[in-house]
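Query structure, 315 tokens:
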């Protein structure tokens, strides 16, 4: 079972538009609403793969009730923590060429009591979990060290932690030794405080995060693939993508694939890349099912191409 923690969940509304014109009245060619937030997306991908998952999340107002119902419809058990504020609603506008415009709401401010209630919900479900995936930005009211506290408590209980966050929250949590951290290339550059223009640069940055406490680093390099750096070595993997329809939630699908395949080693990296490649070819923030995956297309190597320039360098 994979337990996910999403301290700032959302409802994600996606509109596919023929074009985006400021000041105009636009008619969507298609639209959908999905339960959102990085940890919630991990749970959705884990459930789509046929594994058990429990989603811990603060929920408030009618939006929170809808989030809980949508997750239940997907067969996901929700350990909802009632909060006074309303669950946020995010909007994504998709143009025909794949360009995305995102509007993310701030979300409710959690009180100290509500923040402690979320930690207590994690503690209650942790004994049954093979992995705990802690994902996303922190809502207002939670200090940067909140994830560090969660990692420390979970490790004391014997749980393994995968952390997908950024900025001060990531830096603070590193000293508690999360089992896996999953930055994208921009978050990786921010964490080490320098630009990254090659795969070799990303490798050095990942090694630095390991030196600062992370036991392993699963770094998403966008269209260039993914990099895994752990005690057994460094591995690099790519997969072809015919058409990018939406990259919303693709990194979350990758983390789900990684954890579902054991959370370590080349096999888990290949699963992560297969899930990410499948996700970007789906509409909105849909998560891939086994039928969407093409594991045979993944190219995996222990010989990291250090001089390979990144398509989208982090500057």
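Result returned for the query:
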């Amino acid at each position: 079972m994979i337990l996910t923690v999403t301290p700032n969940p959302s409802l994600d509304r996606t509109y596919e538009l023929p074009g985006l014109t400021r000041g105009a009245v636009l008619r969507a060619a298609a639209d959908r609403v999905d339960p959102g937030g990085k940890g919630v997306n991990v749970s959705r991908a884990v459930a789509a793969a046929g594994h058990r998952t429990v989603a811990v999340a603060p929920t408030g107002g009618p939006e929170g009730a809808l989030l809980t119902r949508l997750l239940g419809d997907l067969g996901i058990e929700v350990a909802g923590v009632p909060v006074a504020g309303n669950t946020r609603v995010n909007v994504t506008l998709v143009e025909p060429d794949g360009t995305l415009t995102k509007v993310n709401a701030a979300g409710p401010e959690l009180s100290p009591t509500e923040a402690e209630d979320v930690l207590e919900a994690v503690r209650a479900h942790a004994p049954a979990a093979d992995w705990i995936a802690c994902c996303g930005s922190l809502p207002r009211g939670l200090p940067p060290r909140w994830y560090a506290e969660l990692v420390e408590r979970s490790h004391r209980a014997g749980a393994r932690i995968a952390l997908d966050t950024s900025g001060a929250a990531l830096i603070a949590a590193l000293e508690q030794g999360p089992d896996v951290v999953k930055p994208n290339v921009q978050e990786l550059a921010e964490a080490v405080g320098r630009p990254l223009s090659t795969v070799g640069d990303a490798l050095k940055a990942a090694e630095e995060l390991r030196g600062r406490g992370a036991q392993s680093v699963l770094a998403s390099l966008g269209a260039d693939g993914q990099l895994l750096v752990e005690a057994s070595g460094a591995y690099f993997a790519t997969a072809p993508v015919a058409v990018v329809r939406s990259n919303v939630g693709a990194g979350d699908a990758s983390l789900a694939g990684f954890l579902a395949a054991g959370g370590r080693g080349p096999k888990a990296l290949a699963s992560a890349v297969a899930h990410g490649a499948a996700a970007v070819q789906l509409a909105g923030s849909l998560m891939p099912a086994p039928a969407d995956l093409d594991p045979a297309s993944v190219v995996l190597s222990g010989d990291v191409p250090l001089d390979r320039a990144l398509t989208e360098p982090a500057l």
